[in-house]
Amino acid sequence: STAAYSSGGGKYTLVGNDYTEHLEYCTDRAWEGHDFSFKVEIDGDTLVQSGVEKIEKQGINRINIEKYIRLK
User: Fold this and answer.
1) What dihedral angle (degrees, nearest 10) is formed by the CA atoms of 69, 60, 53, 31?
2) Segment 11-51, tens digit of pLDDT
3) What integer pLDDT is reported at residue 1 of this predicted model?
4) What totals of helices (H) and strands (E) does the chain contain, helices first?
5) 3-class DSSP string for 3-19
6) Residue 27 CA from chain centroid, whole number
7) What are 43's strand-pairing partners?
8) CA-to-CA distance for 17 and 38, rounded, in angstroms?
9) In sequence order, which residues have a C-beta less than 8 Å from that of residue 49 and are 6 or more positions away?
C-alpha cells in the first residue's frame, strides 16, 4: 500500500566526477525544468552517484544517493 513509482529524464553533462542533470520531464511535474548536481564515483563494478536535490519553491531539500552494481 505504500509502494510508489517516480521517474524522470532529460539532458545531462559529465565533467570528471561532476554530473549535472536537467530534468525535462518527470512523473511529478514540479521537478521539471530544474538542474541537479551530483558527484559520481566508480569503484570496481560499483557506481555511486550522490548529491542534493533542492527545489525551494516545493520545500524539497534532500540528499539523494544512488548505487549501481554491474552484473556479471
Assistant:
1) 90
2) 999 999 999 999 999 999 999 999 999 999 999 999 999 99
3) 77
4) 0, 5
5) CCCCCEEEEEEEECCEE
6) 14
7) 46
8) 8
9) 19, 38, 39, 40, 64, 65, 66, 67, 68
Residue with cell 510508489: 4
Length of the chain: 72
Q: What is the mean pLDDT of residues 54-59?
A: 92
Beta bridge partners of 37: 20
Question: Cβ distance 58 to 37 under 8 Å?
Answer: no
Answer whether 6's CB lies under 8 Å from 26's CB: yes
Q: Which three cell numbers stand for residue 32?
A: 521539471
